[in-house]
Amino acid sequence: MITNCKRLLLTLFTGIILCVPVVTFISCKNDPSIPERQGAFFISATGETTQYILRTDNPESGVMSIADNVKTLELSGYTWIFNSNPSVAVGLIYQQGDPGIGLGYVLNDDGSLYEAGQFLITSRFTSYGFFDRYALTSVGGQTPVDAQGNALTDTAGNARADGVTFNFIDLNNGFTLQEKTITTLNITGNGEQATFSGIVDIGDGEFLTSLVVSKPKDPNAGGGSSSGTITYPDSVWVAAFDASLNLKRLYRDDRISYSSGRFRSQYYAQMAKVDNGDVYVFSGSYESATTRPAGALRIKRGATTFDASYYFNIEEKTEGYRFRKVWHIAGDCFLLELYNDIVPTATGVATQYGVVDVAGKTFKWVTGIPAKDKITATGLPTVADGKIYFPIAAEASDPAIYIIDPATASATKGLSIAGATSINAIGKLTH
Amino acid sequence: MHVLLCASMTSIAQNIYGTVTDCANHQTLAGVFVRIAGTHTGTSSGNDGKYAITGLKADIYTVEFSCIGMKSVRKEVRVEGSQDSQLNICMEATQEKLDEVSVEAKSPVQRLRESSYNVIAVDTRALQNTSLNLSHALDRVSGVKIRETGGVGSSSHISLNGFSGRHVKLFMDGMPMESFGTSFRLNNIPVHLAERIEVYKGVVPIELGGDALGGAINIITGQSRRTSVDASFSYGSFNTYKANIDVIYSARNGFFVRLNAYQNYSDNSYKVKTRLLTFHADGSSNYSREDYWFRRFHDNYHNEAVVVNTGVAKKKWADRLQFKFTYSREKQDIQHANLMKIVYGGRERRAQSIIPALSYEKRNLFVPNLNLRLSANYSLARNNNIDTLARQYNWQGEYRTKSFKGEGQYTMGEYDNRSMSVSAGINYRLNERHLFAFNNLYSSFNRRATDAVANSETTTAATFMRRTNAKNVLGLSYRFEPSKIWNASAFIKRYDVTVRGPINISTNTTTVVYEEQQRSFGTNGYGIAATVHPSAAWQLKTSFEKAYRLPSETELFGDESLETGDAGLRPENSLNLNVNISYEHTFAKVHTIVCDAGLIYRDTRDYIRRQIEQRYGGAFYTNHGQVRNYGVDIEARYFYKKMFSLGGNVTYQDIRNMERYSATGRELIYYRDRMPNVPYLFGNADANLQINDCFRRGNVLSFGYNMRYVHSFFRDWASEGGDIIIPKQLSHDLNILYSLRNGRYNIAVEALNITNEILYDNYSLQKPGRSFMVKLRYFFRNRDIQPN
User: Fold this and answer.
1) Are the CB atoms for B110 and B99 separated by under 8 Å?
2) Phi, psi (rounded to 5 degrees) for B553
3) Which listed residue, A340, A413, B507, B525, has the most CB atoms within 10 A of its CB?
4) Could you give the C-alpha distances from B73 to A10, B70, B783, in angstroms and in order?
């Protein structure tokens, strides 16, 4: 524990140094003056079906074997997310019908990976992020209960399903997990319920999450998601919550559709913060009924409404392709995962990638990665040194980390992992 | 099915009677099985060596006398109009020695052993004084490994020469068991219910109609021929008790009725070693870093079943007409998920099933030697999964209230499976050399779900739509028996399947539109089997089959939401080859050795795999993969008179992935790797000492020992460099049995896992430690076999 505290203090200290207000970024260029801390890359890759953890100092080139793994995971299907301060890797998993075992990893002083904690995840999650000292996940469509554990019912006496369950995983306290549920019925004042998508820490003890507002779900409708019929396909809502899940404010706008990349039961985040604290809220216009093109809006740091002066019609820059996932890279640059078809098909195939500059309102297709009809799997990307490290598995070759230069949107192939079916995630841990 | 010749019938019933003695010392022989050759009509000799077969029509009969340790004797005897016929014989000590403690010498078990198939028959009657269930009995068979997840009632998976799941088909009296429901399956049916279990390795005769890629297991429940009562009760560790009653009434006019009822009950409160979920004062929780011992607190299991058989036998219009009704139910608390550290305190599962069945047999239908058997059954199985508590438990039995319903996933789900099977078998023996057989099995299955509160995650509108699967397997076989020295069979099978179910036809991302569609699929298979007896001691046999498994409805349809099924799928297929050699010899009249070595080869291709590729969106099914298995099963047994036996078996199987590239064309690191998570080296050993006439004439005291060994194996492909293994398992069981008055009263004490090993069949799922059971059993059987 002592070494952990030391490390945390050191991390905190380094964090403070790094958080010293940074000079204005110019477009997608990275400021080379920031020194990188000592660290190593944590990679999660899947063999035939089993998921493993690997460690490397250099993901830029070379070949590793899946057999070089440092750990076999008991369960497979982890989503790994990485926080920089404190520097941790958090593995999230929920098994269909059963809880999952969450994992917390840190980098030891000797540079080795160390499992710092295990926690039980009883709820599913469709959104995740970091907030304050927590890794935070959320899922909608839960049946809320009263203090006695009895289901809350609607006027017809049926169990309600408008609960949103959050898991707070404490990064500074042995990866303890605490779960909290709030109800969302009438959260937007129009009698509807919501599922949340994306978690963005805006400082001051608050986070933003976007709302997919729908009618209560018909219990017989199915379809895998927690949303019912969308009555307002041309509106976007974003909510600000505090750590106790008190609703602080709502943001609403009608220039884009809801901000969420829906895929089966998932609600992928389409919202991220840039370095000056402004939050960009994207909408991939997934909803068939929407008349709004895929685009982005902005919430200025500390603002209580959307920035009326900012609107970016992305769809007109992408030859009409809409997008599903959004990751912030550096500066004003974001990586988008775009659907392969102008009108997304039922299977929602999306293996095209592009980089947008939200300040310059430009879009570039990512080049140098496998062709879209060859990509069999992609993993969660990470950003280090102003570059994006993006795991891609393609037909007839071992999966590899592609390094995308945000300025040119061109990619080069880095480390590949022989014997892996896919690389699920890569992240940099420091000590 | 075996051809049974029936004697021609005239009107008046007569008897054959006599005394059986030992040729060596002229003492009378008790327990000698006497029967009319080629029929079920027979009896056994009493303590005074006397026997009588009653109710015979005038004819010439061949009477067969057999007994363990004695050479069988066949005598012809003429039964005439008004007179009983006396037939006294003496028997000599045998050259042949039989399986374990088989009671009837030329038993079906023995006949199967001598067939040309690679089949092992387990005579479960030898296990009646134990508290085992059917899967435990199977676990002792070479090439078979049963993997259990816990104690009484826990799910068990069969691995047969490395094949498992839907590659191994289960039958009960020739009818498929897969639709019988979870409340009536191998892991909860006591051995009493079966007379024997037949395990067909790789090559399956046409009489078991199914797409059994890797083999089949047939449970024979036996036919009631004698009035009898068998009642037992056992009690043991972890508050476990098992009760069983089996009553048979068999009348002279051919009417019979059998009632079998049983219950198993256990708290399964054994100790396990795992991590603790620690609850903190602020409402949060995380796992301990160390393992601790905990007693299981939510693992109660009980099941009950009633099986009623009734019918008539030996009528002009039917050799046997039987109606059978089976009702079973079970209730199981669910203690944990697939990792033991994920613990539950309120989840449970219930199941019940109702299976009415009808069967009809007629020999010499229209013409002599044309035999017909018809069977049909219907089954309605209902399953309920209950997870309603808004609680989170830990291994200390403590809980925290959660903020939403369900420990895992809130459900009160109910699934109804309805199925029907109809089977028809005809065989015709042209003469001693030629036998033709035909068998057809039609089965249909449909599933319906109703779940009032299921989480939207797993249900869709299509969940509640009808899904049916109709399968027909037709087989034809020809057997050539030129002499007693050798015989050979050849067969062909035709498989057809038709599935109906919902499929998403929407082209839009945010709506789903289901339509019911139908798809059909068919293929042909074939095989041969042959055996040679070069001398009395040696037997050589070989069998071969090109076997298939048809795609299931999910594989043809996808999971009806966003998965796509593929009508272009090929069936999984396997080329299965067996070669067996066996030796059996008695030395100096008291020492008998029985050995059997089997070599197996399996080349399995076109596995149907679920594949997820981002470029295609959701998941889909494709044929991919090739696995090859070279295996050897060796069994050996030594007997000293009837007093002592020592035996065992070892199985080694080299099951390797022979697919070099992935479905997407990537080179596989596990090319030529051993299949992961499959036991590949295992064995059993047992010893038995029997003291006859102990303390009193007719009382038997016996001591038994069983050992089970499974070599450690990797959970994942070894070449992936993983560090998770399922450790070596070595456990020892002891039992003592005291039988009084020729087996009428029995007291048995069993001690299982006496060294208290920590045992795992599956990763993380610990099995019980040391336990004890006491069993009391009463058994009465009327000596006369009624002529059915």
Assistant:
1) yes
2) -65, -40
3) B525
4) 92, 9, 21
The closest of A280, A76, A91, A88 to A198, measured between CA atoms, is: A280
pLDDT in the model for residue B615: 77
Helix (H) or strand (E) run with residue A15 in it:
helix A2-18
CB contact under 8 A, B615 and A96: no
| Gyration radius (Cα) of chain A, Å | 21
Question: Residue B242 is which amino acid?
Answer: K
Residues 6+ apart with CB under 8 A from B144: B138, B158, B159, B160, B199
Does residue B514 sit at the A interface (CB-CB below 8 Å)?
no
Residue B292: pLDDT above 90? yes
Give the separation between CA A68 and CA B478, rounded to whole angstroms.
56
The pair of structure tokens assigned to A120 is 């039980």
Q: Which of A72, A141, A286 sits opposite B722 (nearest CB)?
A: A72
Cβ of B720 within 8 Å of Cβ of A66? The answer is yes
> In Å, how far is A285's CA from the nearest CA of chain B?
11
Q: Where in chain A is the domain with CATH 2.120.10.10?
A: 124-365
| Residues B370-425: tens digit of each pLDDT | 999 999 999 999 988 898 899 999 999 999 998 888 898 888 878 888 899 999 99
CB atoms within 10 A of CB A85: 17
d(CA B183, CA A71): 39
Tell me the average pLDDT of chain B.
87
What residues are paired with A366 via a beta bridge? Answer: none
The full set of domains in chain B, from first to last, is: 14-91 (2.60.40.1120), 108-220 (2.170.130.10), 228-781 (2.40.170.20)
Residues A268/A325, Cβ–Cβ less than 8 Å: yes
CB B202 within 8 A of CB B215: yes
What does residue B364 show for φ and ψ, rounded to 5 degrees?
50, 50
Three-state SS at A106: strand
> d(Cα B645, Cα B97) in Å, to the nearest integer?
11
| ipTM of the modeled complex | 0.87
Is residue B547 within 8 Å of B574, Cβ to Cβ? yes
Residue to mutate among A4, A44, A46, A50, with most B CBs inside 10 A, is A50
Write the class of the CATH domain A124-365.
Answer: mainly beta
Residues A117 and A172: their CA atoms lie apart, in Å, by 11
What's CA B89's distance to the chain center, in Å? 38
Nearest to B269 by CA among B291, B232, B229, B237: B237
Burial of B596 (0-12, 13-18, 19+ CB in 10 A): buried
Using CA atoms, how far residue A240 sits from A182, A235, A308, B609, in Å, is 14, 17, 18, 44
Rounded Cα distance, B709 and B746, in Å: 29
Shortest alpha-carbon distance between residue B275 and chain A (Å): 10
Give first-to-last CA distance, chain A, whole Å. Answer: 15
Helix (H) or strand (E) holding B707: strand B700-710
Q: What is the distance between the alpha carbons of residues B121 and B142, in angstroms, rounded to a whole number?
A: 11
Nearby residues of B200 by Cβ (< 8 Å), 6 or more positions away: B117, B118, B119, B208, B212, B215, B216, B217, B218
Task: Tell me how far apart the alpha carbons of residues B592 and B536 are, in angstroms, rounded to a whole number.
Answer: 14
Whole-number Å distance between alpha carbons of B448 and B471: 18
Ramachandran angles phi, psi of A3, nearest 5°: -65, -35
Q: Which two tokens stand for residue A287?
A: 């909803």
CA contacts within 13 A on the Cβ side of B703: 4
Global pTM?
A: 0.85
d(CA B28, CA B22): 6
- C-alpha A66/C-alpha A52 separation (Å) is 8
